[in-house]
Each structure stands twice: as structure tokens, then as C-alpha cells.
Design a protein that fits this description.
alpha+beta; 5-stranded mixed β-sheet; BirA Bifunctional Protein, domain 2
Length: 243
């Protein structure tokens, strides 16, 4: 069975801690959905100074947080729906198969997204989702963004470091032209609801896709452990700025 979980929080450090917590729960499969307050989430091997306009972000209280998966830097705000799949290791952990349920649900919602070569999602020649993965001996984590109604100007600005080459050994981001799903829906004359309604519709169709009857809530003890991990790791400079 697939446990479909909707995070109760929009605090980025909480949601990254929730991903790591669920990643460690071997034996169970999770599909986690969450939205974050304005933040820049960098890959595990990226250098902050190479990817992020730090002064600009700090002035605007845009949090900069490191995740456990590799890949590039992404901007999150509440117009962006994040999805995360966590389960025991399969025979092809890096295949990109994890995108199938996302593509299927989007299709039902009149969004004909296509998977690209870099395990990303494209709509009309523009990127709407970038993904990253983290695989351990027992588990797989695959997560991605869905640009629904994100402030694209803020996205471009936050990720414009202007000093790309400072730290050579770090992973560089690969920028692509991006678009919002909501503007696509409006352009084709489809219903283009706000993100809260879109998220509800996404969850409803995800439950149908997996044949599950209800969303699972995070138990109280899980929330306490996630909160502890958030404090010990995802709010610490030693983790977020370690490169």
C-alpha cells in the first residue's frame, strides 16, 4: 500500500526533516506532498555561494536550506507543490519510473506533462518540474517541484548568484526555461484554480491512482521526531552552509 501524506506545515526545514524521517522508515511506502514558504533548497553537494544570491535572499527572509539528495538549486514558495516518493529499494532505483504517477495525475487534471531526459517534467517546451533522488542500501527517495503559481521573477532572482565558479568541486545547477501550470491552464481555456484547490484535486486523484481511500496524517510521535531532526540539522548553519 502507498501511504499518501500531506504535510501539516509550510516551514521548509520541517518538510525536509519529514522527508528524511520517512526515508528512514524502511518497509513503508510514502507519497508526501507539501508546500514551502519562500526558500531556496540546494542539493547535498552544492556550494551556497555558487548558486544563491545570499544577500538578496537574507534581506527578504528567504531561507536557504540543504537537502539530502543531489542535483541543483530550486526556489520554493507557496505557489509550488512539492512531491516526494519514498519506498524500499527497487531493481531500478534510478530509472525515472517514479514520475509515472505524477504524470498520470496531471493528465487527469488537463496538464499533458512529459518526462524529459533529466527526469524532469515539461509542458509545451518549458520545464514545470525538476527532480532529485537519494538512494541508500535499503531505500529510495525521489522528489520534485511542481511549478503551479510560483513567482517566477523571485525564482530567477534568488538563484542568480553571479559568482558561479567560486567553489569548483561543487555540483552546478543546470537552468532551464520554466513556466507555471496555472498560466498554461488559463492559456488553453481550462479551469485554472488557485493552488489550494489544485492541491486538493491532485490529492483526490492520487488516492484514486493508488486505490487508497484516505490521506494519512503524521502521528504525534512522528511529528515530534521530525521537529527534533529539524532543530538538530535543517536549521543549522553547519549543515545548510557546509560548502
Amino acid at each position: 500500500p502507498m501511504n499518501i501524506v500531506v504535510s501539516p506545515s509550510t516551514i521548509p526545514s520541517f518538510n525536509l526533516a519529514a522527508e528524511e524521517y520517512l526515508f528512514r522508515k524502511s518497509g513503508d511506502s510514502f507519497f508526501l506532498l507539501y508546500r514551502n514558504d519562500p526558500s531556496v533548497i540546494i542539493g547535498s553537494n552544492q556550494a551556497v555561494v555558487n548558486e544563491v544570491d545570499m544577500d538578496w535572499c537574507i534581506e527578504r527572509e528567504i531561507r536557504i536550506i540543504r537537502r539530502i539528495s543531489g542535483g541543483g538549486a530550486v526556489y520554493h514558495d507557496q505557489g509550488n507543490l512539492n512531491y516526494s516518493l519514498l519506498y524500499d529499494k527497487t531493481d531500478a532505483p534510478l530509472s525515472g519510473r517514479f514520475l509515472e504517477p505524477v504524470v498520470a495525475v496531471l493528465k487527469v487534471l488537463s496538464v499533458p506533462a512529459e518526462a524529459g531526459r533529466r527526469k524532469d517534467l515539461w509542458l509545451n517546451g518549458k520545464k514545470i518540474s525538476g527532480t532529485a533522488s537519494h538512494v541508500s542500501l535499503q531505500r529510495e527517495l525521489h522528489h520534485g517541484t511542481l511549478l503551479y503559481d510560483t513567482n517566477l521573477e523571485m525564482l530567477q532572482r534568488a538563484l542568480n548568484a553571479g559568482n558561479r565558479r567560486l567553489i569548483k568541486k561543487a555540483t552546478a545547477s543546470v537552468p532551464s526555461p520554466v513556466t507555471n501550470i496555472r498560466s498554461y491552464l488559463a492559456e488553453v481555456g481550462a479551469d485554472a484554480p488557485g493552488i489550494s484547490i489544485f492541491m486538493k484535486m491532485f490529492v483526490t486523484n492520487l488516492l484514486l491512482h493508488y486505490g487508497e481511500s484516505e490521506v494519512m496524517s503524521l502521528p504525534t510521535d512522528a511529528v515530534a521526531e521530525i521537529e527534533q531532526l529539524r532543530k538538530d540539522k535543517y536549521t543549522q548553519r553547519s549543515w545548510n552552509y557546509r560548502l
